[in-house]
Amino acid sequence: MKKKSVSLVLGSGGARGYAHIGVIEVLEESGYEIKSISGSSMGALIGGLYAAGKLQAYKEWVLTLDIFSVLKLIDFSFATTGVIKGDKVFDVLETLVGKNVKIENLPIDFTAVATDIDTQKEVWFQEGDLLTAIRASIAIPTVFTPITSQNNHPLVDGGILNPLPTVPLLADTNDLLIAVNLNGEKSADKSLQNMVPKEESMQAKVTEFLQKNFFTDKEENELNYFTIVSKTIETMQNLITRYELAAHQPDILMEIPKNLCGFYEFHEAQKIIEYGRKVAKRKIAEFEKLETIS
């Protein structure tokens, strides 16, 4: 039987983006062929690595990360545009992907979405350097230092304007449009309780560093810097995603609950990937059952 071709939309949502890996694995195992991908933020990172044929190598690397090795990857910047440069992470990605990989040469059509904060418009990277496109798309405002466009405009996280970028794929002629939303409704699943950030979480440790080195005048009971930023972004993304899904309903929507893990819990790869697999298996089974009935 001919494989069904898929246009895959990968949403933004911090560490929950690891769930995209599990979804992609299950799609492949289930006989679906991913022909095109669009992504914002972590969706752009995972989608770009998959399009370049390097997702398995990336998965093997992130599965080795514990909370301390993640902390070692954080290169703090004293620039006013962001507290983390991200150079260490992209050095690793360059080792995995290689230098000067062009989007237009990838075997899978790929779009990374970033936000131009001067023009307040989306920027679609569909050609040019792959790692530059990913870096632009994941630049969380005030957290990661932005990159500058050819027009000298600062480019930041694509999830600011479009956390679930379906529009770049609407003209595709593939069989299915599948979207993975990382900002789904909170789940009552008891298995998620062990993944909620604790006092020793990644977010707590980074915040402790920031408080000591950047915000020493803050009261202990004030909301911390990263929490304010992440909650503000997630609030915006939730609203925008609802509008996006109302306007462009995919054939299969996979929802990852927002309480799956903390925004910065990048050391929880195994659990998050497995949860992505779980959701994908259930949604594909439901879709195929309905197809059989019809």
Question: What do you see in this structure?
Answer:
The protein has 294 residues and is of the alpha/beta class. Helices cover 39% and strands 19% of the residues. The strands form two sheets. Strands 1, 2, 4, 5, 7, 8, 9 and 10 form an eight-stranded mixed β-sheet that branches. Helix 1 (19-29) packs across helix 9 and helix 2 (42-51) runs antiparallel to helix 6.
List descriptors.
294 residues, alpha/beta, eight-stranded mixed beta sheet, 39% helix, 19% strand
Write the layout of secondary structure elements.
Layout: E1 4-10, H1 19-29, E2 32-40, H2 42-51, H3 55-62, H4 67-72, E3 82-84, H5 87-97, E4 109-116, E5 121-125, H6 130-137, E6 142-144, E7 147-148, E8 154-157, E9 176-184, H7 202-213, H8 225-247, E10 252-257, H9 269-293
Parallel strand pairs: 1-2, 1-9, 2-4, 3-6, 9-10
Antiparallel strand pairs: 4-5, 4-8, 7-8
What distance separates the N and C termini? 18 Å
Shape: globular
Let me know the average pLDDT: 86
- Poorly predicted regions are 213-222
Structural class: alpha/beta
| Topology, number of strands | 10
Number of helices: 9
Summarize the helix and strand pattern as letters.
EHEHHHEHEEHEEEEHHEH
**Percent range for β-strand residues:** 15-25%
Largest sheet: 8 strands, mixed
Q: What is the radius of gyration?
A: 18 Å
Helix content: 25-40%
In short, what is this structure?
The chain has 294 residues and is of the alpha/beta class. Helix content is 39%, strand content 19%.
